[in-house]
Design brief:
The structure is a single chain. By secondary structure, this protein is mainly α. About 35% of the residues lie in helices and about 5% in strands. The protein contains three helices and two strands. The longest helix is centred in the N-terminal third of the chain and has 44 residues, at about 15-60.
C-alpha cells in the first residue's frame, strides 16, 4: 500500500535554533511578568479591601449633626405698620447737648457662635469634617495662618 502524498503547504517545516530560542524566551518573559506583577496586584487588592472596610465603617456610623447657620425662613408681615404719631421734640437749651447726644453703644451678640477646644490628635481637617464646616471660613474666622499648626487646648470659633 502506498502512502498518500501530503501537499507541500501542509508539510512541516523546520525552524532555526535562533527562532526557537526567541519563542521560548518570549513565553518565559510573559509568564515571568505575570509572577512579577503578582505582589503589586495583591497589594492593590489588599488596599482596596482596606478602603472598602473603612467606607463600610463610615456608612454604619450615625451621620453627624450639622452645626452651622440655619437658613433664614421668610416671615410674613402680620399687618401694615400703623402711621407714626408726631411727637413733640424737646426744646434746646443753651447747656444741653440734645441734638448731639451720644447714643449708647449696643454690642452685637451672636448666639450662633460655637467654640471648640482642640484636643491632642485633632487636625484642622478632622475638625472640619467632624462639624461639617467650611475650612476657608473657619481659617479666616480664627486667623489661622498654617492649618498644620494647631495646638492642643487652642480654642476655635465657628458659626
Amino acid at each position: 500500500m502506498k502512502k498518500p502524498e501530503i501537499p507541500e503547504e501542509l508539510k512541516p517545516t523546520s525552524i532555526s535554533f535562533r527562532t526557537a530560542f526567541w519563542i521560548v524566551f518570549a513565553i518565559h518573559a510573559i509568564i515571568g511578568v505575570g509572577f512579577a506583577a503578582s505582589p503589586v496586584i495583591n497589594a492593590k487588592v489588599k488596599e482596596n479591601k482596606k478602603q472598602i472596610e473603612e467606607d463600610k465603617k463610615l456608612l454604619e456610623e450615625p451621620a453627624p449633626v450639622y452645626v452651622g447657620v440655619p437658613e433664614a425662613t421668610p416671615v410674613p408681615s402680620p399687618t401694615p405698620a400703623p402711621t407714626p404719631v408726631p411727637v413733640a421734640t424737646p426744646k434746646q437749651t443753651p447747656g444741653s447737648d440734645w441734638p448731639h447726644a451720644k447714643q449708647p453703644q449696643v454690642k452685637k451678640v451672636n448666639t450662633l457662635v460655637k467654640e471648640y477646644t482642640v484636643m491632642p490628635g485633632d487636625t484642622f481637617y478632622s475638625i472640619v469634617r467632624k462639624y461639617r464646616l467650611n475650612p476657608i471660613k473657619l481659617q479666616k474666622l480664627n486667623n489661622i495662618s498654617d492649618v498644620n499648626k494647631l495646638a492642643a487646648g487652642q480654642r476655635l470659633k465657628f458659626l
